[in-house]
Design goal:
By secondary structure, the protein is of the alpha/beta class. It contains six helices and seven strands, in the order E-H-E-H-H-E-H-E-E-E-H-E-H. The protein has a single domain (about 1-205), classed as Rossmann fold (3-Layer(aba) Sandwich), CATH 3.40.50. It has helices at about 15-25, 50-60, 65-85, 100-110, 155-165, 185-205; strands spanning about 1-10, 35-40, 90-95, 120, 125, 130-140, 170-175. Helix 5 links the parallel strand 6 (about 130-140) and strand 7 (about 170-175). The longest helix is centred in the last third of the chain and has 21 residues, at about 185-205. The termini are close together. Bound molecules: flavin mononucleotide (FMN).
Length: about 210
Amino acid sequence: MTTLLHISTSPRGAVSASNQAADVFLQALPDGVTTRHIDLAERQMPEVTLHLTNAKQKAFIGAALTEEEQREWDVIVAMVDEFKAADHYLFAVPMWNFTIPYRLKQYIDLITHPGLTFTRDENGPRGLVDGSVTYVYSRGGNYGPKDGKPDPFDFQSTYMSAWSRMVGLSPVQEVLVQGTMAGPEGIANAVAGATDQLQALAAAIA
Ligand SMILES: Cc1cc2nc3c(=O)[nH]c(=O)nc-3n(C[C@H](O)[C@H](O)[C@H](O)COP(=O)(O)O)c2cc1C
């Protein structure tokens, strides 16, 4: 059985450009792919606390955790297990002030830890997550690569690509849904422009 984990971030529900584009992808998935969904706009997430940062450091060096630290760390390990239990990943990510929404950053801060999602060996960091990933990036403007180089204001795709490499997600596919600030028509045009690519990427999921 093939499992795809769909992570959405926009609080805008069905009018969201990234959610509409993700739906095109999901509709085009082959039979036999099971999907799970984490909606980060709705999900209750823990805070990064003193206990949690202590637990992270102690887990790293193999030291004993206090009861409070263990309680908070167990929640993190469960979140990591939930994240890793997939073969493919689909992230629907709006651009907020040139980068990713803060709730996605909070999620990443909660699930990215040495020994759980990455490790290090003589060659540097090595990811402990298996799976391909498709990112749908919605943006009001146009932050696509210019002359083969990333737009200098694009801290959204560049950040997610770097994080993907760190945790081991590969290959990384990107779908740009741009120019979305021109009302519903602008969103419809942006999603329509990305539809062929979204359907082809979904069809390739095995
Ligand atoms: C808090 C916030 C910050 C934004 N910052 C940017 C930005 O830096 N650049 C940009 O092009 N669009 C920006 N936008 C517009 C969104 O990227 C655009 O509306 C996108 O379609 C939102 O995705 P969604 O429709 O899936 O929610 C911002 C929107 C919000 C709500």
